[in-house]
Design brief:
The protein has 582 residues and is an alpha/beta fold. It is built from 21 helices and 13 strands. The two termini are 37 Å apart. Bound molecules: arginine. Arginine binds next to α12. Belongs to the class-I aminoacyl-tRNA synthetase family.
Length: 582
């Protein structure tokens, strides 16, 4: 509908240009928004206000001219001028009903599919030396939700888990594995708790000069391709990636081992990256390190900031790997967009490496590089989330606690459910709540993690939405049990609340497109929350199964069906499992 109205406006504008009322070369940005207040129609544009000055006419006069020149459309019931010169469009109820019928008939809920692009989604990407902690939650679930939405729109999505599996800390871990071996300790046992393993290795590193020396030797051996070191390193990574996979499965994040493309995979390309930067004249040597200085990046004193690509001793850095990864995404994957779901605090890093990659010609204009940064998850004290003793919280522990709390909650509400059922519901509610609480916040802001809030049945929460969905499903189930088949009856929008619900349902495509463009799952959360609210007031005002006329009953059943599918699809795109009852 939005597209249709934009086209009508486009044509009206062209006619005004033909009549020389507006200069032929004047091209205002066409904007059409959903109205908040339905007495202003469904869509509004400020086009007349934007164009009035150039046309030398009062905005309201120009608005009238724009309206007079709009091509006739059966989809528009009424067009009005409002306030200083806004134009309001009222969509025809029949058109709206047809649009919803088309959505019901389509597995994509009537969402038009754009031209398909190849989109790399860089997500999760923990450093493998330690276990995944709460800091990895946001990257994993926000990236996953956006990836799902892009796939829903028909894009080719390539998930890349850019794990930190290469770097100096591995020397220390390998040295410790070597020691374990010498003492005949079973390594996989020792590694079953990565956190303790890391701490024990670090302790040895700090207390023994010999150990530290060996660790440094091992990094060099590893990086120069020594087979024994590589074998140990692979063993370490295997176990570490298994830990990650457990977390992804529990979180219902669509990541597998095939999506892992860690820093180490770019190792063979790093020397070439540096050589090519050298050849393009971008490299400067500064205290033995190879750097790129770009004019746009300066510190507070106005001194240029370097992007270091090779250290004095020859070692490569995080930036070098990212440059190689961009090249891979451009040349091997032929990506149109590369989206990076990484902590906002790495903003400068990404601005810098994106800029270097462009200047060096590693990526072409056709590849859009987008850092989708996110804020910090804080504890109730407003400081980064920690355990009572000040340690970082393991993600798996947090998820288990959420599940346990959900279990108590669901049990208190439904003491009669069987243990199995309770467990299933608790898993969906517990994990869903952690995810939803995060996804529903604007990703660039910090937020406070609170079990109480996320598990509440009131407000914009997972329990509220999951419960709302079970209520809609309940109505549909009863209809089926009563043998009602509404599929052949038309949707008829007569009551105010029916129109209101229909309007909300019709907005799904716009919401998904905005999410896909900006990488912001919270817009979908906000929409689903509104939809559930609108449905509930519709249901209060318009009885469904007990409607007086069969035609009204069937039409309302269809609205309920579409609400069910929209809520379910929306939650699925957020990576949240839904329930039949709870
Ligand atoms: N491993 C990094 C970290 O934990 C995040 C990597 C993000 N992705 C990237 N291409 N740099 O901070």
């Amino acid at each position: 509908m939005k597209q249709h109205i934009l086209e009508l406006l486009e044509q009206s504008l062209a006619k005004l240009k033909d009549q020389s009322i507006i200069a032929a070369d004047f091209t205002p940005r066409l904007q059409l928004d959903r109205t908040k207040d339905k007495s202003h129609g469904d869509f509004a544009t400020n086009l007349a206000l934007m164009t009035a000055k150039a046309a030398g006419k009062p905005p309201r006069d120009l608005a009238q001219l724009l309206i007079d020149n709009l091509p006739a459309s059966e989809h528009i019931a009424k067009v009005e001028i409002a306030g200083p010169g806004f134009i309001n469009f009222f969509v025809d109820d029949n058109t709206l009903a047809n649009q919803l019928q088309a959505a019901l008939d389509d597995e994509h809920l009537g969402v038009p599919l754009p031209e398909s692009q190849t989109i790399v989604v860089d997500l999760s990407s923990p450093n493998l030396a330690k276990e995944m902690h709460v800091g990895h939650l946001r990257s994993s679930i926000i990236g996953d939700a956006v990836a799902r939405a892009l796939e829903f729109l028909g894009h080719k999505v390539i998930r890349q888990n850019h794990v930190g599996d290469w770097g100096t800390q591995f020397g220390m871990l390998l040295a410790y594995m070597e020691e374990m071996r010498a003492q005949n300790t079973e390594i996989s046992m020792a590694l079953s708790d990565l956190e303790s393993f890391y701490r024990a290795a670090k302790k040895r590193f700090d207390e023994s000069e010999d150990f530290a020396k060996r660790a440094r030797e091992l990094v060099v051996e590893l990086q120069s391709g020594d087979e024994d070191c590589l074998a140990l390193w692979r063993e370490f990574n295997e176990i570490s990636l298994d830990h990650c996979q457990q977390v992804y499965d529990k979180l219902n994040v669509k990541l597998t081992r095939d999506d892992v493309r860690g820093e180490s995979s770019y190792n063979p390309d790093l020397a070439q990256v540096v050589a090519d930067l050298e050849a393009s004249g971008l490299l400067t040597e500064d205290q033995g390190a190879k750097c790129v200085f770009l004019d746009e990046f300066k510190n507070q004193n106005g001194d240029p900031l370097p992007v270091i690509v090779q250290k004095q001793g020859g070692g490569f850095l995080y930036s070098t790997t990212d440059l190689a990864a961009m090249r891979y995404r451009q040349n091997q994957l032929n990506a149109d967009r590369a989206l990076y779901f990484v902590d906002q605090r790495q903003g400068l890093h990404f601005q810098q490496v994106f800029s270097v990659a462009r200047k060096a010609g590693f990526v072409k204009d056709g590849l859009s590089l987008e850092h989708m940064g996110f804020g910090t998850m804080n504890g109730e004290d407003g400081k980064p989330f920690k355990t009572r003793s000040g340690d970082t919280v393991k993600l798996i522990d947090l998820l288990n606690e959420a599940e346990q709390r959900a279990f108590e909650l669901v049990k208190s509400k439904n003491p009669d459910l069987s243990e199995d059922e309770l467990r299933e519901i608790a898993l969906a509610v517990g994990i869903g709540s952690v995810k939803y609480a995060d996804l529903s916040k604007n990703r660039s802001s910090d937020y406070i993690f609170s079990f109480e809030q996320m598990l509440s049945f009131e407000g914009n929460t997972a329990p509220y939405l999951l419960y709302a969905l079970t209520r809609v499903r309940n109505i549909l189930r009863k209809a089926t049990e009563a043998g009602i088949d509404a599929s052949q009856s038309p949707i008829a929008l007569e009551q105010e609340k029916e129109v209101e619900l229909a309007n909300k349902l019709a907005q799904f495509a716009e919401v998904i497109n905005r999410l896909a463009e900006r990488g912001t799952p919270h817009v979908l959360c906000g929409y689903l929350f509104e939809l559930a609210g609108v449905f509930s007031s519709f249901y209060e005002a318009c009885p469904v199964l007990s409607a007086e006329q069969t035609s009204a009953r069937d039409s309302r059943l269809k609205l309920a069906k579409l609400t069910e599918r929209t809520l379910k699809t929306g939650l699925e795109l957020l990576g949240i499992k839904t329930l039949e009852r709870m």
